[in-house]
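Residues pack. Consider this:
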Amino acid sequence: MNAGRPGSGKRARLRVGMLPLADAVPLLVARDVGFFAQHGLDVKLTLEVSWAAVRDKLAAGMLDAAQLLAPMPLAANLRVDRLGVPMEAALVLSRNGNSITVSNELLLAMGSPPPDPVETGQALWRVIDADRVAGRRRRVFAHTFPFSSHHYLLRDWLDAAGIDPERDVQLVVIPPPLMLEQLRAGRVDGYCVGAPWGMAAEIEGVGHRLLSTHRLRAGCAEKVLGVTRDWATLNPHSHLSLIAALIQAGRWLDEPGHRAQAAQMLIDSRFVDAPSQSLVHALTDQGEDARGPQFVFGGDGEEARPRHQDARWFLSQMRRWDQVSGAIDVDALVEASYRLRLHGQAQAIAAAPALSEQMAR
């Protein structure tokens, strides 16, 4: 892979990894609308099977950059992700977008509660208590990765309802594209995953979205653009150009009518093997559906900026659920993981794309 300097007459060729999810759409928009090319980049998007695969390929240099779960750079820099290859993010690709989906059987047992965190939690607690008395197995809930908002929001909701995530239920990790299959087969009772996989269960008639996670933590950082620290050091101009192109893609997505166009791009790409209706709904949701994803892609620039308070919340969850222990220099870790100054530089380039050419000369 040639991560050369944009503006030299030859586009920098980059490989960027992504998972089949609706909120990978900024990458597709940047490619198909031409923002990557505008910034001197020739980007190949590669579809990966799991978050572990994305992490491993990024760490091994098989990818230059990737859509990552927002807590993943923190886990990498804490060396608790098995690899310990330092990573960083200077752009939030999406906020919100997850839902907790349950099987039809479980929804019926819960009495079909309204999409409220307290009422759904209480209804699930009653089912789990009845299962315990009857000697039935523990309910199985899936999330996408140990270091993910899905994992932490699911645990937070269970714990708030008085349900012990360790003893009262069984939590398992399943890649997003396989969630629906596992629910259909009855191997899980529910899952927390990004759109469109919650609505896809409803369309197929095998499950129901119980609760959108923006009701638990509104505006939670979901996906970020991740790179290894070594790659960022060796390729500063390509990195800034990549971030700037994706800032422009986020702004484009928030302009009137563009979400529907983006949904069609995603459908035409065949990147996400889910019903077209679920993709259109995921990207055009304006809040009418109480269980909708309400994606935010950062059109005003501020939502795309990595927030240190998000990182601190993720760290608090890692400690709460015994993923990390001991003393941590939180300020240094957060600053190394979420690069605010770099984001500001990329914003300036996005505001005046010609700067990308000037910087690379």
